[in-house]
Structure formats: structure tokens, C-alpha cells
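TASK: fixed-backbone design
INPUT:
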């Protein structure tokens, strides 16, 4: 009787181990996600009512695969927030990624800082706050920079465009 119970307990484990193998070198495909973006007025306790919102994808070039999403919020008290989440390979030693916003009408380029990988993998993010209206800065650029103190933009590795979303 004990052998029957033992066999019934072990048999499912043995059968589970006999399944077909999965080739982990093949890509799994792609997925798309829908994000709910609030309609109506968005309020921030620090900055007041949102008066402008834009978002858009950012993608790498042929040498540097990357994908992500950038956003700009402008608030009635004059502050702007820019966030960027991007999947991009970790930079090599003595280099880093820097984010830029560009106003295409004036060609003004604004550094938004270094991208950070909080988990030491391809997921990078950037949060930038400005005490000015960034609604005209609709082009996003990520550059690969040498850690040499030179403030000039380095090699462009990813670009994107922000598109305004009018809220009800």
C-alpha cells in the first residue's frame, strides 16, 4: 500500500521531467502593452495643475539596439518634469549614457543628465526637473559619453520624438 502511494506521488514528477525541451536561443516574440493615461486635469502637489503633456518612443540606431519611452510634463507653476525609461546595453567602463532634449525650432540642446541602471542590467532611467517650460523640447537624444569631463555631446545612440497629448 505504501509503495502505491509513493508511486502515485513520484509518477507526476517523473512525467513532468519528460516534456519536450525548449530552445532558449530563439526569441520569444514581442508584446505590446496599453497604458492608461489619465484624462482631465492632472494635479501635482508640488507644481500645481499640468498644462502640457507629451510622450513618445525612443529607439536605438543600427549599432546600438535600444527601446523605451520618454515623457515631459509642464505645470502651471512653471516647473517641468522629464522622465525616460530605456532598455539599452550597459555602457563599457569609463563611458556613460547621457539624455538630451532638443528644441527643433531653436536647436537649443539641454542635457537632462546621466541615465542610471538601478539593477545593473539593460533597464535605464532618468528623471529631470527644470524650472522652465520644456514644451518646445520635442526631440530626445541619448548619447554615449566618455567619462572625460567634456560637456559636448558624444555619439548619438538613440533618438525619439515627443508628441503632445491633449487631455480633456
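OUTPUT:
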Amino acid at each position: 500500500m505504501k509503495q502505491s502511494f509513493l508511486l502515485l506521488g513520484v509518477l507526476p514528477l517523473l512525467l513532468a521531467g519528460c516534456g519536450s525541451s525548449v530552445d532558449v536561443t530563439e526569441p520569444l516574440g514581442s508584446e505590446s502593452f496599453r497604458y492608461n493615461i489619465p484624462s482631465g486635469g492632472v494635479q501635482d502637489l508640488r507644481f500645481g495643475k499640468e498644462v502640457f503633456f507629451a510622450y513618445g518612443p525612443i529607439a536605438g540606431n543600427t549599432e546600438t539596439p535600444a527601446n523605451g519611452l520618454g515623457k515631459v510634463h509642464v505645470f502651471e507653476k512653471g516647473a517641468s518634469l522629464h522622465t525616460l525609461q530605456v532598455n539599452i546595453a550597459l555602457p563599457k567602463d569609463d563611458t556613460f549614457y547621457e539624455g538630451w532634449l532638443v528644441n527643433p525650432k531653436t536647436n537649443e540642446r539641454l542635457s537632462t543628465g546621466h541615465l542610471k541602471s538601478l539593477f545593473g542590467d539593460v533597464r535605464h532611467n532618468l528623471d529631470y526637473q527644470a524650472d522652465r517650460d520644456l514644451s518646445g523640447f520635442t526631440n530626445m537624444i541619448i548619447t554615449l559619453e566618455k567619462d572625460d569631463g567634456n560637456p559636448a555631446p558624444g555619439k548619438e545612440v538613440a533618438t525619439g520624438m515627443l508628441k503632445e497629448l491633449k487631455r480633456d
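COMMENT: DSSP finds one helix and ten strands in the chain.
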